[in-house]
Protein backbone atom coordinates (compact mmCIF):
# COMPACT_ATOMS: atom_id res chain seq x y z
CA UNK A 1 0.00 0.00 0.00
CA UNK A 2 0.93 3.67 -0.15
CA UNK A 3 2.56 3.61 3.28
CA UNK A 4 5.42 1.54 1.87
CA UNK A 5 6.97 4.25 -0.26
CA UNK A 6 8.24 7.68 0.75
CA UNK A 7 6.42 10.75 -0.52
CA UNK A 8 8.11 14.16 -0.60
CA UNK A 9 6.11 16.67 1.44
CA UNK A 10 6.51 19.28 -1.32
CA UNK A 11 8.28 19.66 -4.70
CA UNK A 12 11.21 21.38 -2.99
CA UNK A 13 11.76 18.18 -1.00
CA UNK A 14 12.37 16.03 -4.09
CA UNK A 15 16.05 15.09 -3.88
CA UNK A 16 17.38 15.92 -7.35
CA UNK A 17 20.91 14.85 -6.45
CA UNK A 18 19.64 11.30 -5.92
CA UNK A 19 17.88 11.22 -9.27
CA UNK A 20 20.30 13.23 -11.39
CA UNK A 21 23.75 13.06 -9.75
CA UNK A 22 25.41 14.20 -12.98
CA UNK A 23 23.61 17.58 -12.73
CA UNK A 24 23.18 18.07 -8.97
CA UNK A 25 24.24 19.79 -6.88
CA UNK A 26 25.11 22.75 -9.07
CA UNK A 27 22.15 23.09 -11.40
CA UNK A 28 18.88 24.99 -11.18
CA UNK A 29 17.17 22.67 -13.64
CA UNK A 30 13.78 21.21 -12.78
CA UNK A 31 12.00 18.13 -14.05
CA UNK A 32 10.02 19.12 -17.15
CA UNK A 33 8.61 15.86 -18.52
CA UNK A 34 6.54 13.33 -16.56
CA UNK A 35 5.58 9.89 -17.91
CA UNK A 36 2.61 8.78 -15.82
CA UNK A 37 2.34 5.01 -15.39
CA UNK A 38 5.64 4.64 -17.25
CA UNK A 39 5.64 0.82 -17.07
CA UNK A 40 9.01 -0.53 -18.22
CA UNK A 41 10.23 2.91 -19.29
CA UNK A 42 10.55 2.60 -23.07
CA UNK A 43 9.26 6.10 -23.74
CA UNK A 44 11.64 7.70 -21.23
CA UNK A 45 14.60 5.88 -22.71
CA UNK A 46 13.75 7.29 -26.16
CA UNK A 47 13.11 10.79 -24.85
CA UNK A 48 16.35 10.86 -22.81
CA UNK A 49 18.54 11.06 -25.89
CA UNK A 50 16.07 13.12 -27.94
CA UNK A 51 16.06 15.83 -25.23
CA UNK A 52 19.45 15.38 -23.51
CA UNK A 53 19.23 18.64 -21.56
CA UNK A 54 15.70 18.10 -20.25
CA UNK A 55 15.13 16.39 -16.92
CA UNK A 56 12.37 13.80 -17.00
CA UNK A 57 10.83 11.30 -14.64
CA UNK A 58 8.61 8.25 -14.86
CA UNK A 59 5.96 7.63 -12.21
CA UNK A 60 5.09 4.00 -11.64
CA UNK A 61 2.94 2.38 -8.98
CA UNK A 62 4.29 -1.16 -9.14
CA UNK A 63 7.37 -1.58 -6.99
CA UNK A 64 9.08 -4.26 -9.07
CA UNK A 65 8.43 -2.40 -12.30
CA UNK A 66 9.83 0.87 -10.96
CA UNK A 67 12.89 -1.03 -9.64
CA UNK A 68 13.37 -2.53 -13.07
CA UNK A 69 13.28 0.92 -14.70
CA UNK A 70 15.75 2.23 -12.14
CA UNK A 71 18.19 -0.59 -12.94
CA UNK A 72 17.63 -0.12 -16.65
CA UNK A 73 18.57 3.56 -16.42
CA UNK A 74 21.63 2.86 -14.25
CA UNK A 75 22.99 0.30 -16.68
CA UNK A 76 22.37 2.59 -19.66
CA UNK A 77 24.34 5.29 -17.83
CA UNK A 78 27.24 2.90 -17.33
CA UNK A 79 27.18 1.64 -20.92
CA UNK A 80 26.84 5.13 -22.44
CA UNK A 81 28.98 7.58 -20.44
CA UNK A 82 27.41 11.04 -20.30
CA UNK A 83 24.03 9.84 -21.55
CA UNK A 84 20.76 9.01 -19.76
CA UNK A 85 21.75 11.29 -16.86
CA UNK A 86 18.57 13.30 -17.38
CA UNK A 87 16.08 10.48 -16.79
CA UNK A 88 14.83 8.90 -13.59
CA UNK A 89 11.87 7.08 -12.06
CA UNK A 90 9.85 7.25 -8.86
CA UNK A 91 7.58 4.68 -7.36
CA UNK A 92 4.41 6.52 -6.52
CA UNK A 93 0.68 6.74 -6.97
CA UNK A 94 0.36 9.52 -9.51
CA UNK A 95 -3.35 9.88 -8.79
CA UNK A 96 -2.51 11.06 -5.29
CA UNK A 97 0.91 12.65 -5.30
CA UNK A 98 1.50 14.74 -8.45
CA UNK A 99 1.38 18.02 -6.45
CA UNK A 100 4.04 16.64 -4.08
CA UNK A 101 6.46 16.34 -6.98
CA UNK A 102 5.78 19.32 -9.25
CA UNK A 103 5.20 23.03 -8.72
CA UNK A 104 2.67 25.14 -10.56
CA UNK A 105 3.60 25.41 -14.28
CA UNK A 106 6.75 23.30 -13.85
CA UNK A 107 6.08 20.70 -16.55
CA UNK A 108 6.16 21.14 -20.31
CA UNK A 109 5.05 17.62 -21.22
CA UNK A 110 2.98 14.90 -19.54
CA UNK A 111 2.50 11.43 -20.98
CA UNK A 112 -0.31 8.92 -20.42
CA UNK A 113 0.51 5.99 -22.66
CA UNK A 114 -1.74 2.95 -22.66
CA UNK A 115 -3.18 3.57 -19.18
CA UNK A 116 -5.28 0.91 -17.49
CA UNK A 117 -8.83 1.07 -18.94
CA UNK A 118 -11.00 0.44 -15.84
CA UNK A 119 -13.98 -0.55 -17.94
CA UNK A 120 -16.79 -0.63 -15.37
CA UNK A 121 -18.62 2.63 -14.87
CA UNK A 122 -18.12 2.54 -11.11
CA UNK A 123 -14.36 2.32 -11.71
CA UNK A 124 -14.14 5.32 -14.05
CA UNK A 125 -13.02 7.38 -11.09
CA UNK A 126 -9.87 5.25 -11.08
CA UNK A 127 -8.92 6.34 -14.58
CA UNK A 128 -5.77 8.49 -14.74
CA UNK A 129 -7.52 11.03 -16.96
CA UNK A 130 -10.65 12.52 -15.41
CA UNK A 131 -12.14 16.01 -15.13
CA UNK A 132 -10.84 16.29 -11.56
CA UNK A 133 -7.31 15.09 -12.36
CA UNK A 134 -7.13 17.36 -15.41
CA UNK A 135 -7.46 20.32 -13.04
CA UNK A 136 -4.35 19.04 -11.30
CA UNK A 137 -2.48 18.42 -14.55
CA UNK A 138 -3.41 21.93 -15.76
CA UNK A 139 -1.90 23.28 -12.55
CA UNK A 140 1.49 21.57 -12.94
CA UNK A 141 1.72 22.20 -16.72
CA UNK A 142 3.06 25.49 -18.05
CA UNK A 143 0.89 27.42 -20.51
CA UNK A 144 1.74 25.87 -23.87
CA UNK A 145 2.68 22.57 -22.22
CA UNK A 146 1.33 19.39 -23.80
CA UNK A 147 -0.54 16.29 -22.59
CA UNK A 148 -0.03 13.21 -24.75
CA UNK A 149 -2.46 10.29 -24.43
CA UNK A 150 -2.79 7.04 -26.37
CA UNK A 151 -4.65 3.77 -25.87
CA UNK A 152 -5.72 0.70 -27.81
CA UNK A 153 -9.09 0.69 -26.01
CA UNK A 154 -11.51 2.74 -28.10
CA UNK A 155 -13.87 3.46 -25.21
CA UNK A 156 -11.01 4.80 -23.09
CA UNK A 157 -9.71 6.81 -26.03
CA UNK A 158 -13.12 8.46 -26.40
CA UNK A 159 -13.23 9.12 -22.66
CA UNK A 160 -9.77 10.74 -22.51
CA UNK A 161 -10.52 12.86 -25.55
CA UNK A 162 -13.86 14.06 -24.24
CA UNK A 163 -12.41 14.91 -20.80
CA UNK A 164 -9.71 17.00 -22.52
CA UNK A 165 -12.11 18.51 -25.06
CA UNK A 166 -14.52 19.63 -22.33
CA UNK A 167 -11.84 21.09 -20.06
CA UNK A 168 -11.48 24.89 -20.34
CA UNK A 169 -7.69 24.78 -19.96
CA UNK A 170 -6.88 22.43 -22.84
CA UNK A 171 -7.14 22.65 -26.62
CA UNK A 172 -6.36 20.02 -29.26
CA UNK A 173 -3.21 20.29 -31.35
CA UNK A 174 -3.94 20.73 -35.05
CA UNK A 175 -3.05 18.01 -37.58
CA UNK A 176 -0.14 20.14 -38.72
CA UNK A 177 1.19 20.53 -35.20
CA UNK A 178 0.88 16.80 -34.58
CA UNK A 179 2.88 16.05 -37.72
CA UNK A 180 5.61 18.51 -36.76
CA UNK A 181 6.03 17.13 -33.23
CA UNK A 182 8.70 14.37 -33.15
CA UNK A 183 7.31 13.09 -29.85
CA UNK A 184 3.95 12.11 -31.37
CA UNK A 185 5.66 9.39 -33.43
CA UNK A 186 6.99 7.82 -30.24
CA UNK A 187 3.57 7.40 -28.63
CA UNK A 188 2.72 4.22 -30.50
CA UNK A 189 6.26 2.87 -30.94
CA UNK A 190 8.44 3.64 -27.92
CA UNK A 191 6.72 1.87 -25.04
CA UNK A 192 6.51 -1.83 -24.33
CA UNK A 193 2.70 -1.71 -24.42
CA UNK A 194 2.72 0.22 -27.70
CA UNK A 195 5.04 -2.36 -29.26
CA UNK A 196 2.77 -5.17 -28.12
CA UNK A 197 -0.26 -3.48 -29.68
CA UNK A 198 1.71 -2.86 -32.90
CA UNK A 199 2.78 -6.53 -33.07
CA UNK A 200 -0.86 -7.56 -32.81
CA UNK A 201 -1.75 -4.94 -35.44
CA UNK A 202 -4.15 -3.32 -32.98
CA UNK A 203 -5.72 0.06 -33.55
CA UNK A 204 -4.72 3.00 -31.36
CA UNK A 205 -6.54 6.16 -30.34
CA UNK A 206 -4.59 9.24 -29.36
CA UNK A 207 -5.49 12.64 -27.94
CA UNK A 208 -2.84 15.37 -27.71
CA UNK A 209 -3.83 18.63 -26.05
CA UNK A 210 -2.14 21.89 -25.13
CA UNK A 211 -2.50 23.72 -21.82
CA UNK A 212 -4.03 27.12 -22.57
CA UNK A 213 -5.23 30.12 -20.61
CA UNK A 214 -9.03 29.83 -20.54
CA UNK A 215 -10.68 32.43 -22.75
CA UNK A 216 -12.47 34.14 -19.85
CA UNK A 217 -9.08 34.91 -18.28
CA UNK A 218 -7.36 36.62 -21.20
N1 LIG B 1 2.98 3.45 -20.29
C1 LIG B 1 3.52 2.10 -20.30
C2 LIG B 1 3.51 1.54 -21.70
O1 LIG B 1 2.90 2.14 -22.58
O2 LIG B 1 4.14 0.48 -21.90
C3 LIG B 1 2.76 1.17 -19.33
C4 LIG B 1 1.32 0.87 -19.63
S1 LIG B 1 0.56 -0.21 -18.42
C5 LIG B 1 -0.83 -0.84 -19.25
C6 LIG B 1 -0.09 0.93 -17.22
C7 LIG B 1 0.91 1.23 -16.11
O3 LIG B 1 0.40 2.24 -15.24
C8 LIG B 1 1.21 0.03 -15.24
O4 LIG B 1 2.61 -0.18 -15.20
C9 LIG B 1 0.65 0.42 -13.88
O5 LIG B 1 1.38 -0.14 -12.80
C10 LIG B 1 0.75 1.92 -13.92
N2 LIG B 1 -0.18 2.63 -13.02
C11 LIG B 1 -1.50 2.38 -12.86
N3 LIG B 1 -2.04 3.22 -11.97
C12 LIG B 1 -1.04 4.05 -11.56
C13 LIG B 1 -0.96 5.11 -10.64
N4 LIG B 1 -2.03 5.51 -9.95
N5 LIG B 1 0.24 5.73 -10.45
C14 LIG B 1 1.33 5.31 -11.13
N6 LIG B 1 1.31 4.31 -12.01
C15 LIG B 1 0.15 3.67 -12.23
UniProtKB/TrEMBL annotation:
<dbReference type="InterPro" id="IPR029063">
    <property type="entry name" value="SAM-dependent_MTases_sf"/>
</dbReference>
<protein>
    <recommendedName>
        <fullName>tRNA (guanine-N(7)-)-methyltransferase</fullName>
        <ecNumber>2.1.1.33</ecNumber>
    </recommendedName>
</protein>
<feature type="active site">
    <location>
        <position position="116"/>
    </location>
</feature>
<dbReference type="GO" id="GO:0000049">
    <property type="term" value="F:tRNA binding"/>
</dbReference>
<dbReference type="Pfam" id="PF02390">
    <property type="entry name" value="Methyltransf_4"/>
</dbReference>
<keyword id="KW-0820">tRNA-binding</keyword>
<feature type="binding site">
    <location>
        <begin position="93"/>
        <end position="94"/>
    </location>
    <ligand>
        <name>S-adenosyl-L-methionine</name>
    </ligand>
</feature>
<keyword id="KW-0808">Transferase</keyword>
<feature type="binding site">
    <location>
        <position position="37"/>
    </location>
    <ligand>
        <name>S-adenosyl-L-methionine</name>
    </ligand>
</feature>
<keyword id="KW-0819">tRNA processing</keyword>
<dbReference type="GO" id="GO:0005634">
    <property type="term" value="C:nucleus"/>
</dbReference>
<comment type="similarity">
    <text>Belongs to the class I-like SAM-binding methyltransferase superfamily. TrmB family.</text>
</comment>
<dbReference type="InterPro" id="IPR003358">
    <property type="entry name" value="tRNA_(Gua-N-7)_MeTrfase_Trmb"/>
</dbReference>
<feature type="binding site">
    <location>
        <begin position="191"/>
        <end position="193"/>
    </location>
    <ligand>
        <name>S-adenosyl-L-methionine</name>
    </ligand>
</feature>
<keyword id="KW-0694">RNA-binding</keyword>
<comment type="pathway">
    <text>tRNA modification; N(7)-methylguanine-tRNA biosynthesis.</text>
</comment>
<feature type="binding site">
    <location>
        <begin position="60"/>
        <end position="61"/>
    </location>
    <ligand>
        <name>S-adenosyl-L-methionine</name>
    </ligand>
</feature>
<dbReference type="InterPro" id="IPR025763">
    <property type="entry name" value="Trm8_euk"/>
</dbReference>
<dbReference type="GO" id="GO:0008176">
    <property type="term" value="F:tRNA (guanine(46)-N7)-methyltransferase activity"/>
</dbReference>
<comment type="function">
    <text>Catalyzes the formation of N(7)-methylguanine at position 46 (m7G46) in tRNA.</text>
</comment>
<keyword id="KW-0539">Nucleus</keyword>
<keyword id="KW-0949">S-adenosyl-L-methionine</keyword>
<keyword id="KW-0489">Methyltransferase</keyword>
<dbReference type="GO" id="GO:0043527">
    <property type="term" value="C:tRNA methyltransferase complex"/>
</dbReference>
<feature type="binding site">
    <location>
        <position position="113"/>
    </location>
    <ligand>
        <name>S-adenosyl-L-methionine</name>
    </ligand>
</feature>
